[in-house]
Write a structure and sequence with these properties.
Strand content: 25-35%
CATH superfamily of the largest domain: Alpha-L RNA-binding motif
Keywords: Isomerase, RNA-binding
Number of strands: 16
Radius of gyration: 20 Å
Distance between the termini: 22 Å
Oligomer: single chain
Protein name: Pseudouridine synthase
GO biological process, one term: enzyme-directed rRNA pseudouridine synthesis
Mean pLDDT: 89
Low-confidence stretches: none
Number of domains: 3
CATH architecture of the largest domain: 2-Layer Sandwich
InterPro entries: PsdUridine_s_RsuA/RluB/E/F_cat, PsdUridine_synth_cat_dom_sf, PsdUridine_synth_RsuA/RluA, PsdUridine_synth_RsuA/RluB/E/F, PsdUridine_synth_RsuA/RluB_CS, RsuA_PseudoU_synthase, S4_RNA-bd, S4_RNA-bd_sf
CATH class of the largest domain: Alpha Beta
Largest sheet: 9 strands, mixed
GO molecular function, one term: rRNA pseudouridine synthase activity
CATH topology of the largest domain: Alpha-Beta Plaits
Shape: elongated
Order of helices and strands: EHHEEEEEEEHEEHEHEEHEEEH
Length: about 240
Amino acid sequence: MLRYMESIEYPIRINKYLALKQIASRREADRLIQDKQIRINGKVAIVGDKVQKGDSVEVGSGAKALAKKRIYLAFCKPEGIVTHSPERGQRSIADIFDFGERIFPIGRLDKDSRGLIILTNDGRITDKLLNPDSGHEKEYIIRVDKTVNPEFIDAMRKGVKLDDGYVTKKCVVESTGAKQFRIILKEGKKRQIRRMCEALGYEVTDLLRIRIMDVRLRDLRAGEFRQLKGAELQTFLQGIGMKE
């Protein structure tokens, strides 16, 4: 069963935070707190404590007995499918994919784009993977409506002023065909690549994400998935400062 993680509004009570992160139910969280198994910014938490945005929450070894099997999937999202909060008439990942476990997508890939997205039941990784200051790489193959010239590539590399005045960070961009290029971003503004291209007079006709950090799409076709395990999983978790 695919579910959508409820967004966290800070400050938030520690037991609710642990429940939303899929670490424990609220009742189980209260027991962990009473057993001094939870720390906030290095300090032992007490019932009623609140978590502020940016706080470090540590879970002690006593919580391991509550831990369920954590699942991490590389999924190839088809074009035309939304990742979060579908509106009436829209199709979501949940409409085309049933893994049999309660999992949710990490991050977004807009409806008109396709390619790699991570699905998991591990709420611990959400903030670590999506933190805008983390600098985690995401790689894309882009097709546009007209010939890619050196001036376009150079402008994309140096940073583009978007319609809201934001200037994108320097990034890796290289031409891979007459109307195609590869781009590696370390940030993720809403519809960023499409807006960068539009600012330079180009229109994106196809956007395929092929990599998130060291996790690659490989040969997955639309709607297919593979479970992350072994060295691939270890490298991914280490990259965000986590362990299984």
